[in-house]
Amino acid sequence: MFNRYIDVLTNLPSYSKNVFRKDYFSWLLNQCRGWGKFSYGLLIFNFILQIFSLLQSFNVAPLQSVVSFIGGNLSVACVIGISNRSGIQGWAGAVSAICIASVGFMAGNYATAWEQIGYLLFLDFFCILDPKWNDNIQAEKFENRFEWIAYVIFFGLAWAVLYYIFSLTSDPRVFLDSLNLAMAITGSLLELNRKREQYYVWTISSIFTIALWMQTMLQGDGNFALIFSYGVFFLNDMYAFFSVRGWFRSNTHTEA
């Protein structure tokens, strides 16, 4: 379950050299090609929604609105990259995580903020370096019920620990925040291991996160940008389930 973490950390010096190779940036650009039309449509649709959100909220909170705009667009590019098994998702995820975490702290939505920091440290960083996320990315599936059991136990333990930690704070949404963060951690582990079952977790997580940010909005914080993004995340999850290019239909990243 944790072999990819061990492999990357053990081979950190050699894997790091791949990031700074001569053709790295052109390779990243090529990773944005060959996606399905639905994916490009989602990217454009989200960009338009983010512009409307930016115009609506800029006068009230200009800094937060601009950071949300950047994070919202890059986060969608990240999840679309994941669905298309594209190496761009590592960097898009890392930059968006910094932006969304900043907005989360400013809005008092600490669960989302720490969720993004967790993505940055335990997912984006490793996906950027892991060669299995940078060359002919393969989708894998659970081979037996014991893998299901192992990840369910991991989720349960993560939720219990996080619930206890959040209960020691003044967080007004202990149950929802701890549940959402536990799902994010479990989904991250599944994604790093390239398991297609990650999309069961991402779909549920998208629904809960939309609910979380709507509750934050009702309490007077946050803005529509991230709600739009997570709505697009949900549509992207459906793409991963049902598209012929998705994780449940094909095994390799489709090149242009």
TrEMBL record:
It is found in: Membrane. It is a multi-pass membrane protein. Pfam families: NMN_transporter. It comes from the Bacteria. Keywords: Membrane, Transmembrane, Transmembrane helix. The keyword Ubl conjugation does not apply. GO terms for molecular function: nicotinamide riboside transmembrane transporter activity. InterPro entries: NMN_transpt_PnuC (IPR006419). The chain crosses the membrane at residues 38-55, 61-83, 90-111, 146-166, 199-218, 224-242. GO terms for cellular component: membrane. This is Nicotinamide mononucleotide transporter. It comes from Liquorilactobacillus uvarum DSM 19971.
